[in-house]
Design brief:
Length: 282
């Protein structure tokens, strides 16, 4: 049977991708950002996941403001890196896991969480930057990826509670798939940032660190945080953090923190990163 072996949380920032792609990851500004992932790269090379279920958000790239699904599961066999205005990132094509994705779609929808099925989709920095942070710059990504896009761009996004409960349904779906697969769930985006308006540039270190504490040890209660608190405390784009709750919902109530990293600045965003394992598999 497939097994969920770890949960990873990781910010995405387009400038991180640009720093890597343009050979600037050793610059003074970027060095401390990438250093936070040195442990993670070694750890994941040893873990060798077969499939990553990657929760992320599309930034009006594959979906325009004409049509925005709340939860969309990528069921294709490949996903091309998107052109977000300056050419596609020079990263490998993302290989999907169509059979597992179709199984998860069926299981989750039968468990009352409606998903949008996506059979063709380009993937933007929301998905490719976390892959780059965790795997570096390989010729091919070392695992298959199921892209799971969440609307955090057009109000109203799903609630944190909905995301957390959906994570539980995703766990059940993964662990009822008959093939012996090592599967990780990643929750990406965040932490605090605001890209527009009078509060552009907002970062809230204290709130972010409390979020990191609570998503490890107090996740059920954290999941009840209303949208308005994310926006007020973590900025308009801080709402991306609800995606971490899908990852957390997929894990056991009690988890072991394997790695934690927090850094400011990276472009306009606070970068946060966690590696979690269930206690019995740690
Ligand atoms: C930035 C951060 C994001 O999450 C994003 O999607 C785009 C830009 C930034 O920090 O510039
Ligand atoms: Fe974003």
């Amino acid at each position: 049977m497939a097994k969920l072996t770890a949960g990873i949380a990781c910010s995405h920032v387009p400038a991180i991708g640009a720093a890597l792609d343009n050979g600037k990851s050793g610059d003074d500004y970027w060095k401390p950002v990438f250093a936070g992932f040195d442990f993670s790269k070694l750890w994941i090379a040893a873990q060798k996941p077969d499939v990553v279920f990657l929760v992320y958000n599309d930034h009006a790239t594959a979906f325009s403001l004409d049509l925005i699904p709340t939860f969309a599961i990528g069921c294709a066999s490949t996903f091309q890196p998107a052109d977000e205005g300056w050419g596609a990132r020079p990263v490998p094509v993302v290989e999907g896991a169509p059979e597992l994705a179709a199984h998860i779609a069926q299981s989750v929808i039968e468990n009352d969480f409606d998903l949008t099925i996506v059979n063709r989709m380009d993937v933007d920095h929301g998905l490719t930057v976390p892959l780059s942070l965790m795997f570096g710059q390989p010729q091919a990504w070392p695992c298959k990826v199921i892209p799971f896009a969440v609307n955090v761009v057009q109000y109203p996004p799903p609630s944190g509670r909905r995301c957390y409960m959906l994570g539980k349904a995703i766990r059940k779906a993964i662990e009822s798939f008959p093939d012996d697969l090592n599967v990780q769930v990643w929750g990406t985006g965040g932490m605090s940032h605001q890209l527009q308006g009078p509060r552009a540039g907002l970062i809230n270190r204290e709130w972010d660190n409390r979020f990191l504490d609570r998503i490890v040890n107090d996740a059920d209660d954290l999941s009840k945080t209303p949208h308005i608190e994310y926006v007020r405390e973590a900025g308009s784009e801080g709402i991306e953090l609800v995606m971490w709750l899908i990852m957390r919902g997929a894990m056991d109530d009690e988890v072991q923190q394997i790695h934690r990293f927090y850094h400011v600045p990276a472009s306009n965003t606070a970068v946060g990163h966690l590696i979690l394992k269930n206690k019995e598999t740690a």
